[in-house]
Amino acid sequence: MSTQDVVTIAVAVLVPVVTAAAGVASMLIQDRRVRRSREGRRRIVFDDATRQVAFAAEWWKAKQLTAATPEALQEPTAVVNGWLDEASARVTAAELPSMGEDPHVSFSRLLLLYRFRRRSATAIRTGFYAVLGLMSFTVLSILFDRSTREDTATWASILVLCGVVALLLRFWAVSADNEEH
Description:
This protein has helices at 3-66, 74-93, 107-110, 119-144, 152-178. It contains five helices and no strands.
């Protein structure tokens, strides 16, 4: 086996492995970003509720100072209780942050083998599978066809291009499925 054959086989094997590793790394980064944004939204809800409770407490104190009779405090009491209930409901409705859970990287998530909510994401996933099929065909062609081993640079370029396109399509499919419109 010549040096050129070894290089060709190495390229044929390493490009899909590097593409898969990049996919796993991107999933971990994406999970971290989603988790941080969820925690940020929850923090904003808590801050808003805290300010609402502080305002209700100050407003209640002011009403107590200005009320002439205990009967005059009945309506402000109902208003303050409504504000407090609203703040409590807002905090309860906020998504709970994940407690120490590490993002779960699975084979089905990596290869987009789960049900999408949007048709556009499903169409993009089809393109992703087509590119993966082209990559598989190219790798098999390099490994089993001696004539393809002669032009290593071209086949390596095709594999790298397919790997980049596959990653881009994967990111696009996930983002198209997660868009909130």
